[in-house]
Amino acid sequence: MSPKVLIIDDEANLRGLLARIIQLEGYVVTEADSAKTALKLLESESFQVVITDVKLPDANGVDLTLKMKSIYPTTEVIVLTAYGTIADGVRAMKNGAFDYLTKGDHQNKILPLLSKASEKAQLQQRVHDLENRLTRKFGFDQVIGHSAAIRQAVSMARKVAATDTTVLIVGETGVGKEIFAEAIHHESHRKARPWVAVNCSAFARDLLESELFGHAEGAFTGAAKARKGLLEEAHEGTLFLDEIGEMPLDLQAKILRVLETGEFYRVGESKPRKISVRLLAATHRNLEQEIKSGRFREDLFYRLNVFVVPIPALRDRRGDIPLLAERFVQIFSGKMNKSVTGWDEGFAKALDRHSWPGNIRELKNVIERCMILTDGPRLTADLLPLDFNLHDDPGGLDLASVEKKHIQRILHFTKGNKTEAARLLNIGVTTLYRKIHDYQITA
């Protein structure tokens, strides 16, 4: 697509001449005789380059440049004037102009300048589009749900994202705390800077300290060379400490120092290092109770507790379960190359009445399991784990009923192959045939 250029000049003859010259080079040109007309055109159409005169009937072109760049930052502006001054040129460039030309000597310079401005504008637009796609992928658009509880959590997180405030995200295991943390980062002014996440429960105490703060050469056995920690990796960006309630007390004190002074020590070093990092933390624990039990520092809690975002459990937002399940079906349909379009009523009822102790993570795992087992276009209740279907038959909790349902499920999985079913059940084929007969299983 040819680049679009908007020319703003109240002198019709000069404006028309410049437009024809530029059109001959393959640009799409639109003309405006005033700032008011130009701004209306910019509202409805995207231009790569604007060429504006300084003296307009309703504005000063240098001042107009500042307004246009503040609203349309990826559009480049070239300023033309009949009487150029150094002061006006400097002010135009400070206001964001790509360049400043004096009429009369501009005809030889305008085309190469226009080419450079157009290339820059198109590159900026591509970068802008990429950033928007990244924001949609990692921002709050990835949070699925329309329930009041999840919308409230998103609203709170959006408001704090624009700040540098420390945020504590709380909620049960599997509710999506890291998704919220990542969205806060990607909708903050640090989004172009590093995003570093670490699960505090995944490391032993000594290893966690080295991972977070780095170490000097020879700091401990095996430290053959100095190494940066995750804190330094996150410099100018965001560090997310997941499950901070699992962090040992002495490391909590070191994190507190980072929050209070912006300084830290690598393991084995005596000289502090400066750091600029935004800290986000998450936990499934009740930290106030942990303080009473002596497992969490009260002073760190108050530094983290500046802004709390509570994430609701899945059982408290049941209306979102079909939306989340649908999304997971779409994901696994693509990964497994299956054409699954939905589920039957029994499947929906089973999902709705389940207590979901593992929250969204559990739902995702359940859908993945059902997608593996299904051979048809719709998911059915018999594909679900056994505990989902016990509600259908309150009297069928005896061992025989449970065994019958389990055998039926395995036979469905093996597509009636009794040898394979017997292998999975770890019983002999003869025993399986006897149980099929006893339970009157149709396979």
Count the beta strands: 16
Based on the coordinates given, report the CATH architecture of the largest domain. 3-Layer(aba) Sandwich
The level of helicity is 40-55%
Level-1 CATH class name of the largest domain: Alpha Beta
Structural class: alpha/beta
Mean pLDDT: 88
Determine Rg (CA atoms, Å): 32 Å
Q: What name does CATH use for the topology of the largest domain? A: Rossmann fold
Mind describing the biggest β-sheet? 5 strands, parallel
Overall geometric form: extended
Instruction: Measure the end-to-end span.
Output: 62 Å
Count of helices?
Answer: 19
Order of strands across the biggest sheet?
2-1-3-6-7
Report strand %: 5-15%
Low-confidence stretches: none
Q: Could you please describe the fold and organization of this structure?
A:
The protein is α/β, with parallel strands linked by helices and 443 residues long. The chain has 3 domains: 4-135, Response regulator (Rossmann fold, 3-Layer(aba) Sandwich); 146-312, P-loop containing nucleotide triphosphate hydrolases (Rossmann fold, 3-Layer(aba) Sandwich), CATH 3.40.50; 320-439, Orthogonal Bundle (Helicase, Ruva Protein, domain 3). It has 19 helices and 16 strands. The strands form 5 sheets. The protein has a 5-stranded parallel sheet, with helices on both faces. Helix 6 packs parallel to helix 7 and helix 18 (418-425) packs across helix 19 (429-439). It is extended, with a radius of gyration of 32 Å. The two termini are 62 Å apart.
